[in-house]
Specification:
The relative contact order is 0.15. Strands 1, 2, 3, 4, 5, 6, 7 and 8 form an eight-stranded mixed sheet that branches. This protein is 40% helix and 29% strand. The protein has a single domain, classed as Gcn5-related N-acetyltransferase (GNAT) (Aminopeptidase). By secondary structure, the protein is of the alpha+beta class. Helix 2 runs antiparallel to helix 4 and helix 3 crosses helix 4.
């Protein structure tokens, strides 16, 4: 069953906030495991073990505890960073975006019950150029992914961009969202730039891809 896409309305805040929080926190484990393979993490474990042995007087055999201590601290830092990201993503749900809009996707609940909000997308005017749109958020409930929800939301947002006269729509996605990145490429988005954003200084960073969708002559186009 195809999802029904409609404009956001008051009363959707709770469902949208839950979707955005779930999307932001979904990559905590992946980011943590990625950070464990960095050379800087190993150096931090060695440094912690040396400090425990020299300054605290911990027996050398027990200095191996440095590894789980560093791992626990690292996981806590990654979790808190993602939690802050989730909080930022939920900001502005009560305000109308500049020259933009917000839409939700609905599907029937269990046993064809009351429609349930299973996805959300927003579009606003870019801060860098008035003729470019920015997609600050797109999230789909985990249980409803790969059912055409993100595709339907994206189609609605891009049609809005065309109607508003934008020449392009930009968004950023992380290295941990392979399925979403494939969808964007299928829709005609092209890579504009790649950069790294610190999560916990240089210890934990995330690779981000800025993607662009060009709009030409009142129609949607993937041509650069």
């Amino acid at each position: 069953m195809a999802p029904a896409v409609r404009p956001w309305r008051p009363g959707d805040e709770s469902a949208c906030r839950a979707l955005l929080s779930e999307a932001a926190m979904a990559t905590v484990h992946t980011a943590f495991l990625s950070s464990l393979t960095r050379e800087l993490t190993f150096q931090l474990v060695v440094l912690t073990a040396a400090l425990l042995f020299i300054f605290v007087g911990v027996p050398l055999a027990r200095c191996a505890l440095a590894a789980p201590l560093v791992g626990a601290a690292l996981y806590a830092g990654v979790w808190l960073s993602h939690a802050q990201q989730a909080a930022r993503a939920s900001q502005g749900l009560h305000t109308a975006p500049r020259r933009g809009g917000c839409w939700v996707a609905e599907l029937p609940g269990p046993l064809l019950g009351r429609p349930r909000v299973v996805g959300v997308i927003a579009v606003t005017q870019s801060l860098r150029a008035e003729d470019r749109a920015w997609v600050p958020r797109l999230a789909v409930a985990r249980a409803y992914r790969r059912r055409g929800v993100a595709s339907a939301l994206l189609d609605r947002a891009l049609a809005f961009c065309r109607d508003q006269g934008y020449v392009a729509a930009d968004l950023v996605i992380s290295e941990y969202h392979d399925a979403a990145r494939r969808l964007f490429h299928e829709k005609g988005f092209s890579l504009r730039q790649v950069y790294h954003r610190p999560v916990l200084g240089s210890l934990v960073t995330v690779c981000l891809y800025q993607l662009c969708f060009e709009i030409r002559a009142g129609r949607l186009s993937a041509d650069p």
